[in-house]
């Protein structure tokens, strides 16, 4: 199983145990509001908003909260800008950060501070991006329907490159150009993903000693706790030993 999948699983476990879930809801709400501001409140006519709402539903966000986030777009005078940062953490682990910000100076300062305080450093644009491929990632519950051979064949026909099951979920990976066809096929099969979207998947991963790897994870946690940060990608290899160490904390 890939390090990406294992890190996703660890985050899901942590989210069920601590306040991280409120952070997830906050980021999902912001994405819904920004999507509605940029493309309108009509879900059917706004693909970005439709995807944001689907992800919110996958995280069990209530209909009322979703509607409030959409309606907020009409009154919100903030001008959000998409920003990305590239850098390296302890041990040379590559990190790519995606943000939605209404205050560039605040976001730049916060992200730079996170890297500096955790023995990392920001790098120039393009120095890290080439280490990642953009893939479609769908996380669906593992059940009788999604574990059936027929479902796997349907996903392969739609363009799935890889399917991995772990901890009650199945992660489906596709090429960028096949994202739409798999999303449509899941809808046809009445399978609602916990999450779906385009993610940056590392071409190669970096293996570190446990203590060094924990330093990287602390940096990742700090970045993900930032309200301006929407997504954090990295190429740290989540080894079985590291996974066990994280599970015991």
Question: Could you characterize what this model shows?
Answer:
There is one protein chain. The protein has 249 residues and is an alpha+beta fold. It has a domain at 3-75: Integrase, N-terminal zinc-binding domain (Arc Repressor Mutant, subunit A, Orthogonal Bundle). It contains nine helices and eight strands. α2 packs across α4. The two termini are 22 Å apart. The model is unreliable at 1-7 and 9-18 (pLDDT under 50).
Offer a concise description of the structure.
With 249 residues, this protein is an alpha+beta fold. The protein is built from nine helices and eight strands.
Radius of gyration: 18 Å
Shape: globular
Can you list the strand order of the major beta sheet?
Answer: 3-1-2-8
Per the CATH scheme, the topology name of the domain at 3-75 is: Arc Repressor Mutant, subunit A
C-alpha end-to-end distance: 22 Å
Task: Tell me, rounded to a whole number, the average pLDDT.
Answer: 89
What is the count of β-strands?
8
Q: Segments where pLDDT lies below 50 for 5+ residues? A: 1-7, 9-18
What's the CATH first level of the domain at 3-75? Mainly Alpha
Compressed to H and E, one letter per element, the order equals HHHHEEHEEHEEHEHEH
**Corresponding CATH superfamily of the domain at 3-75:** Integrase, N-terminal zinc-binding domain
Helix and strand content put the structural class at alpha+beta
Helix content: 40-55%
The CATH architecture category of the domain at 3-75 equals: Orthogonal Bundle
Biggest sheet features: 4 strands, antiparallel
**DSSP helix count?**
9
Strand percentage: 15-25%
């Amino acid at each position: 199983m890939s390090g990406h999948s294992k890190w996703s699983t660890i985050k899901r476990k942590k989210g069920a145990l601590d306040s991280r879930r409120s952070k997830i809801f906050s980021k999902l709400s912001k994405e819904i509001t920004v999507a509605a501001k940029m493309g309108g409140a009509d879900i059917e006519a706004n693909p970005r908003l439709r995807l944001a709402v689907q992800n919110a539903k996958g995280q069990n966000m209530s209909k009322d909260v979703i509607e409030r986030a959409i309606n907020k777009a009409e009154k919100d005078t903030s001008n959000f800008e998409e920003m990305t940062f590239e850098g390296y953490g302890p041990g040379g682990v590559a990190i790519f950060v995606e943000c939605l910000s209404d205050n560039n100076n605040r976001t730049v300062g916060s992200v730079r501070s996170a890297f500096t305080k955790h023995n990392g450093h920001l790098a120039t644009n393009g120095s890290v991006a080439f280490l990642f491929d953009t893939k479609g990632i769908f996380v669906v519950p593992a059940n009788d329907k999604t574990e059936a051979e027929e479902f796997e064949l349907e996903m392969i026909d739609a363009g799935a490159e890889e399917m991995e099951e772990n901890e009650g979920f199945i992660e489906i990976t596709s090429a960028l150009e096949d994202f739409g066809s798999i999303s449509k096929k899941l809808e046809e099969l009445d399978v609602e993903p916990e999450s779906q979207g385009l993610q940056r998947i590392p071409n190669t991963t970096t293996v570190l000693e446990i203590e060094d790897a924990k330093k990287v994870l602390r940096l990742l946690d700090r970045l993900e706790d930032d309200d301006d940060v929407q997504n954090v990608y990295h190429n740290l290899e989540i080894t079985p030993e590291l996974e066990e160490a994280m599970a015991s904390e």
